[in-house]
Specification:
Blueprint lengths: L11 E4 L11 H13 L4 E4 L1 H7 L6 H7 L3 E2 L7 H15 L8 H13 L2 E3 L3 H5 L1 H4 L8 E3 L1 H17 L11
Helix pairs in contact: 4-5
């Protein structure tokens, strides 16, 4: 059984740079909503240091840079042995049969989110497809979710505040 997701308004929300990508589909409305909630300071967005490096890349779309750069970002710090072990296990899960080192940045994103966040929002289908395995190694406080799932959890907490009766959160299956 999964732990109950934490209220996103009271924990750090980490993200993958792809969360702000607009691809001309229904997710574009979710990106607009997320940007509005960020502007309203509904939660604290934290960019893992490795995500910040991706955002700084010259090929990153200007809209993604504009959306992401104002947030708090992590800095390189020493890791405890437990954090090193978690990062190594995440890297092994994401690596799978891919070329060695291909998913190291994604593993670093998740390891930093495990250290600093309550959520990690991503559109990366490789990460989302590996959730059952990742849940075995990441701390239980970290929820790895799609943007749609994150907004559903946020809406759940808003509804709970409004009527005092918690409705079950709407979650898409990945």
């Amino acid at each position: 059984m999964l732990p109950r997701p934490l209220d996103p308004r009271i924990v750090n929300v980490c993200y993958d740079a792809n969360v702000f990508d607009r691809v001309g589909g229904p997710d574009d409305d979710a990106v607009d909503r997320l940007l509005g909630l960020i502007e309203a300071r509904e939660f604290v967005m934290v960019a893992p240091r490795t995500v910040r490096a991706e955002i700084d890349h010259p090929n990153t779309p200007a809209a993604v840079k504009t959306a992401a750069l104002p947030h708090i970002f992590t800095i390189s710090t020493g890791l405890t042995q437990g954090e090193v072990d978690i990062a190594r296990k995440i890297r092994a899960i994401l690596q799978g049969n891919a070329k060695l080192g291909k998913h190291d940045a994604d593993a670093s994103h998740l390891a930093e989110a495990a250290k600093y966040g309550g959520y990690f929002i991503t559109h990366d289908q490789r990460i989302l497809s590996k959730l059952p395995e990742l849940r075995l190694v990441i701390p239980p406080h970290l929820q790895i979710v799609s943007l749609a799932d994150f907004l559903a959890i946020y809406d759940h907490y808003l509804a709970q505040d409004a009527d005092g009766v918690p409705p079950p959160p709407r979650r898409r299956t990945v």
